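Notes from the 1:1 (GR / supervisor)

We went over the backlog. Supervisor wanted to see one worked example end to end before approving the batch request, so GR pasted a single chain during the call. The sequence is below; no edits were made to it. Supervisor asked that the structure be written out right there so they could see what the output format looks like.
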Amino acid sequence: ATGTYLQANGLEPGGCPELMNDTHPDVVRQMAANYFAAGSNMVETNSFGGSRYMLNKYDLGDRVEELNRKGAELARSAAPDGCFVLGSIGPTGEFLEPNGTATENEMYDVFCEQVRGLVAGGVDAVCIETMSDLAETCLALRAAKETADVAVITTMTFDKGPRGYFTMMGTTPELAAEQLTVAGADIVGSNCGLPIESLVEIVARMRSATEKP
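Structure output shown during the call:
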């Protein structure tokens, strides 16, 4: 729960969460420390919206690697021995061609840039999370694998409709698990949006389509 924590500790409405890695490092470090103290084995970096696409909205597109690196360093500095830091990468907010204007090469480069910053800050793994577009997720996965020697977790977000569970772009849990496994994900999963009972169903369906954790 990064966003709500930061909102409760100084993030103004409409403000950039990732900028707090620079302007409020003590808050970001304490957030990680609190979650580790509460029993977390893994804590994510404050970098969910840390891609160039997202940071451009705050005129911070030239600080991608810096802000991601600082987010990773802050979480790393709070991690006890034996605990892990995951580099959080969320959706870019852009659509790939032909649904949008982003090209595959451009989006790949954007993900590589973010991964470089997170790895420079000392993450143990990368978590590509809360994704709806399987193509974008696979692109981020490839960028992470080709940029750094780290484990990569991929999680997608599903909604329940009359015909069952699908991402916003129409992908089922089974197809997501199958395709992300083929693409090289080390761990696959689901997060956000639905109550835990639904996530239990989704995870069971993903389990039927992959041997990955």
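Supervisor's comment: The mean pLDDT is 97.
Batch request approved.
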